[in-house]
Structure formats: C-alpha cells, structure tokens
Specification:
126 residues, alpha+beta, three-stranded antiparallel beta sheet, two-stranded antiparallel sheet, 39% helix, 17% strand
Length: 126
C-alpha cells in the first residue's frame, strides 16, 4: 500500500447496486419525459419472459391435436403415432396408417382379407 497515493472509496451493495441503478435510470427517464421508453422496455421484458411459456403451451396444444392413441386392429397393442403417418405395429409388425385418430391396416388394392380358424388336433403320431 502506498502511503502518499490517492485514496479510493468503494461502495458495494451486494447485488442491489444494479437493481437500484435501473430504478434510478427509470426515474430519470420519467423525469425527463421519456417514460414511453421505459414502458417499451418493460413491455419487451414481459414479452421475452412470457415467450417460453407461450411456446410450451402452443407445443402441448399441437401435440394433443396431432398424436393419435389407438390399438392395433390385429393384435390390440396400444400405441401412439402422428396423425397421417404410416408405421409398423411395435408388437406384431403389421403395417398401419393413422386417419381420423384411428389406426387402419395398410393393404394393397385388390386384396381381400379373410379371417379363418384352424383347429389343430394332436394325434401323437409324430
């Protein structure tokens, strides 16, 4: 420390200095007649603070409208898919597509699907 050097003083408010400076700056703008600048800055601050919330609400609304939850028409496995998409059932692998919130089988034109039952009788001859 230099005995003959200039004396310096510091005033620390522990984090409150910046906030008090902003308040003093806002009061100065209002006093000078530029309160509209302060209003605009506060409006921008509110907008940017609320923007992530609005984006999340919009994303959740979009998800509710585009995600369909239904069961596979072949194996009754419950699954979810995006409206208008084609996918394979995660359980049985059946090709499906989503229309109007329901899962439908994807079959080529001209194919007639027939359900049949096979009875198995064990003769024991093998």
């Amino acid at each position: 420390m230099q005995p003959n050097g200039p004396k310096t003083y510091s005033f620390a408010l522990g984090g409150w200095g910046f906030l008090l400076g902003l308040v003093a700056f806002g009061m100065l703008l209002s006093y000078v007649g530029l309160g509209w600048v302060l209003s605009a800055l506060l409006g921008l601050l509110v907008f940017f603070l609320s923007l992530p919330i609005l984006v999340m609400l919009g994303f959740r609304w979009w998800l509710r409208r585009t995600i369909a939850s239904d069961t596979c028409p072949v194996c009754n496995f419950e699954s979810e898919a995006i409206e208008g998409s084609r996918f394979g059932c995660p359980s049985c692998g059946e090709p499906l597509y989503v229309a109007d919130g329901r899962f439908h089988r994807h079959s080529a034109s001209g194919i007639v699907e027939v359900a049949y039952e096979v009875d198995y009788v064990d003769d024991g001859d093998f």
